Amino acid sequence: MGLFVLVGCSGEPVNRTTGVYMLLDTSGTYADEIGKAQQIISYTLAQLEPGDSFALARIDTGSFSEKDIVAKVSLDTRPSTSNAQKRQFLARVQEFVESVRPSPYTDITGGLLQALEYLDEKDPGTKTILIFSDLKEDLKEGYVRDIDARFDNVRVVALNVTKLRSDNIDPRQYLDRLDAWRQRVEQSGGTWRVINDLDNLEKLLRT
Fold it and tell me: Which residue segment(s) compose the domain that 64 sits in?
């Protein structure tokens, strides 16, 4: 199938490619959840087609940096080559998993800004940001993240949003945290979804 198709009376080309940027929380106990993240990564790669793009980045102290990108790929239009690229991507992820150390801080906003920059550069037809995190942002002193980012035509999917110990004491903290991120994305033009059931990943890239 072509990357662009002609539709409508005007015959204007429509971009059918998909771009995915996944943010991986490596703070605290989330470093122990990476096995679940690998499941999501493998599923995502399997769904992508030639011409699509995918990047995986860690969330750490200062996430607005290309240095935090663990692996990235723009799939070749030749299926045999794109399949080899997928295997190389998974191998790079495995190397990261075997060497990752927990981060003392969690700069989710910086990671989102980097994700938006990546997707803007790739300019795919469909843009998706996956966030594997408890969504508890913990910034190092001095880091400024009060930034009005735009999520126009971007799907943001929060995955495996585990409950903190304090959430068990007061569930409102968990619900408020989810709602705050939802409002931030939707009020800036994006769409928001939470998937905690990792056996239900067929909704992951569905528009």
Answer: 14-203
